[in-house]
């Protein structure tokens, strides 16, 4: 899946006053991997920046 910025976006900044124009990036690419190696193992090996597991607060 490829997400690209909308050329017709009306324009905003973040933070709202004196900030940088949004969006910060032109394109985001997402891919689905179907492999025998679990996602968690690839995360531990350094292939991914985040584990996609959230910490549960008790």
Helix content: 10-25%
| Number of individual domains | 1
Succession of helices and strands: EEEEH
> What is the global morphology?
elongated
Low-confidence stretches: none
- Strand element count: 4
Distance between the termini: 35 Å
Instruction: Order the strands across the largest sheet as they lie in space.
Output: 1-4
Mean pLDDT: 82
Beta-sheet strand percentage?
Answer: 15-25%
What class, by secondary structure content?
alpha+beta
Largest sheet: 2 strands, antiparallel
Number of continuous helical runs: 1
Rg, Cα atoms, Å: 17 Å
Topology:
Layout: E1 2-4, E2 13-14, E3 20-21, E4 27-29, H1 39-44
Antiparallel strand pairs: 1-4, 2-3
Description:
The chain is of the alpha+beta class and 58 residues long. It has one domain (2-44). It has one helix spanning 39-44, and strands at 2-4, 13-14, 20-21, 27-29. The strands form two sheets. Strands 1-4 form a two-stranded antiparallel sheet. The chain is elongated and about 45 Å long.
């Amino acid at each position: 899946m490829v997400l690209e910025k909308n050329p017709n976006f009306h324009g905003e900044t973040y933070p709202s006053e004196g900030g940088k124009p949004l969006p910060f990036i032109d394109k985001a690419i997402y891919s689905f991997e179907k492999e025998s190696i679990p996602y968690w193992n690839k995360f531990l090996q350094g292939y991914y920046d985040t584990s996609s597991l959230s910490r549960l607060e008790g």
